[in-house]
Amino acid sequence: MKLHWSPRSPFVRKVMITLHETGRLDEVELMRNVVASHLPPNPAVLADNPLGKIPALVTEQGVLFDSRVICAWLDRDGALDAGVEAQRWQALADGATDILLAWRTELLRPQGAWDAITASFRAKIAAVMATLEAEADALASRPFGAGHVAVICFLGQLDFRWGDSAWRAHFPHLAVLAATWAERPSVAATAIVDDGAAGDEVTAGVLTFEKETT
């Protein structure tokens, strides 16, 4: 199998953690590709995924895309919990990750970011973080699963692109949980890496959390 891959992508990271957790990493060849909303579609990716997005997994049966579809296909033995609760956390974290990616694209607009849009993004991310903080005990008590993977990758993207957010100081229960997850071999092995790929420069936004969001 071949995986259209980037060491910076939170959604690719979901697939990589799943490969580690299911013991299937050796089955996949990684193909480094740069994709971004503000760039023309990458021809190599577009040839396999008409949406032009990564991850895309090329298998003997065809090409799979969307991280949830790929992870579910890889986890055929059910090593990662995929119950309704896990699916809800996965939807929440994936949606928040989509917001972060859209926010970055907005910041890269030549004419400048639209304040109303970035304010909306900020409010939604704060609400997501407050929800995860409130549910930290539930997350900690459940078997490691697809929801946890998605939350880990969302928080990783938050650290990567918004390293100035100091979210751990505002959401201490989630911070403790994230530190515990960081010790997991699959999580440590897939930490986001800035490999300096052209066209995918790191752009930090301004994201702060007010005390009332804790």
From TrEMBL:
InterPro entries: Glutathione-S-Trfase_C_sf, Glutathione_S-Trfase_N, Thioredoxin-like_sf. The keyword Zinc does not apply. SUPFAM superfamilies: GST C-terminal domain-like, Thioredoxin-like. One of its GO terms (molecular function) is transferase activity. Keywords: Transferase. Residues 1-82 form the GST N-terminal domain. It holds the Pfam family GST_N_2. It comes from the Bacteria. The keyword Transferase applies. Gene3D superfamilies: 1.20.1050.10, Glutaredoxin. This is Glutathione S-transferase. It comes from Alloyangia pacifica. The lineage of its organism: Bacteria, Pseudomonadati, Pseudomonadota, Alphaproteobacteria, Rhodobacterales.
